[in-house]
Amino acid sequence: MEGITVEELQLAARNHALPLETLRSPITPIGLHYLLIHFDIPEVDAEQWRLSVGGLVERPFSLSLEELQSRPAKTLAVTLECAGNGRALLSPRSLSQPWLLEAVGTAEWTGTPLAPILREAGPVADATEVVFTGLDRGVQGGVEHLYERSLSLDDALREEVLLAYAINGRPLPPQHGYPLRLIVPGWYGMTHVKWLSAITVGDGGFRGWQQEEAYYFQRSEDDPGTPVTRMLPRSLLVPPGIPDFLSRERFLASGQCVLEGRAWSGLAPITRVEVSDDGGASWADAELGAAVSPFAWTGWRFTWDAVGGAHELCCRATDAAGNTQPLEPEWNVGGYCNNAVQRVRVTVS
Prior knowledge:
With 349 residues, this protein is mainly beta. It has two domains: 6-214, Oxidoreductase, molybdopterin-binding domain (Sulfite Oxidase, Chain A, domain 2); 234-348, Sandwich (Immunoglobulin-like), CATH 2.60.40.650. The chain has five helices and 22 strands. The strands form five sheets. Strands 14-15-22-21-17-18 form a six-stranded mixed beta sheet, with no helix packed on it. Strands 2-1-10-5-6 form a five-stranded mixed beta sheet. Strands 3, 4, 7, 8 and 9 form a five-stranded antiparallel beta sheet that branches. A hairpin with a 2-residue loop joins strand 5 and strand 6 (143-152). The mean pLDDT is 96.
């Protein structure tokens, strides 16, 4: 990997990833869940804050936090993964948050479903999209803007989409979007707009920077690309044994060793996880556990007969739609969607 820049270090110091040993837990503790903050954490006075709902609707209105919390509540375990997860393993890499593999987490999000709120507002006949505006403002690509993303009206009306005000049974902390954030199960993290302040129904004309310029899978600078949307299948294992401080290479004694991890996909349920101890030359099936929820990762276990020597452990997931993790990443300009298999170096004594 080429040298990390000072700019990348600044981003890495502000954001943090999931320690892989935490994969043992089906629900990620709040402080260990991955975190990416594009600009600054805005200061919000919940007493004054209101969520506006408007645009191409028949009945625009606004809601206070108390009014949102008085509506029907739903709690859903959801796996969130950053679209740039794995970016630092591409070469050449895009200069952005230098994620390795750990930009993921699974939490229980509590909020009220979005669909009833949209139906109460009454989108007009020409409405086709919904724009979500956060309170975080900054400059990217030379353009000053609020963080905004949009969904098609059909996707926004899906019953699992939540306006969340709590995580793991506690109010959202500032870094996770207090007082309200969007949760769109199955989609990469850029979709889950934090510090939500406005929901605007439109006719497809939204041209926000984060929607039009960022989050496209481009094979070259001239490639118009395809939008990044749902999470590709991925499996991660808990590195066995003990680590070397700097290299993170693992050391363990020979004998039977239970490997475990988590697998997920935003495209379809996980149906298979395979494990290799020779860098992907040969594979064996792991035992799948139950998914935490329809929108969260699945646990898996594999009993490995660890023999002396150097090994490269890998794991790969396949979902019900037939999507399987590749052995090697597909390079792209923004460093998105690198779901190539994890590789863990292990020395068995």
